[in-house]
Amino acid sequence: IIYIAMNMKYIGYLTIMDPICEEAKETIELLHEMNIEVWMLSGDNTNTVNCVAEQLRIPHQQVLGKMTPYNKLQKIKEIQNQKDDQNKQNIVVMVGDGVNDSPALTQ
Questions:
Q1: Does the pLDDT of residue 83 top 80, yes or no?
Q2: Residue 100: which of 60, 57, 68, 63 has the closest Cα?
Q3: Which of 10, 11, 43, 59 is 20 to 30 Å apart from 31, CA to CA?
Q4: Residues facing 3 on adjacent strands
């Protein structure tokens, strides 16, 4: 987010984000078709995360922004510990793009 001021007075902001690659859209669509629950856990600004999630059709209730590495790890553990209809724990697959995702990736 870039905040804009003129003559020391706030007049607005710009949100800049990378384009979403087509492969990501296709992969998430395939996961939805397979009835696999998709979550988005990001350290990015909540507004940006919600915008990206909307484009990827990830349900709003499964989207969390401003997540620290510790928060991501705790959420992964929480999702893993939830039981399905047959009382089995969830299997979680995570994709991360940075060192800050390391704790959650090792879980």
A1: no
A2: 68
A3: 43
A4: 13
Tell me, what's the pLDDT at 10? 96
With beta carbons less than 8 A apart as the criterion, state whether 4 and 10 touch.
yes
State the pTM of this model: 0.75
CB neighbours of 32 closer than 8 A, spacing ≥ 6? 38, 57
DSSP 35: T
Can you read off the two tokens belonging to residue 34? 């397979």
How many other CB atoms are found less than 10 A from the CB of residue 77? 12
- What is the C-alpha to C-alpha distance for residues 70 and 27, in angstroms, rounded to an integer? 26
Element (H, E) at 105: helix 102-106
| Mean pLDDT taken over the chain | 87
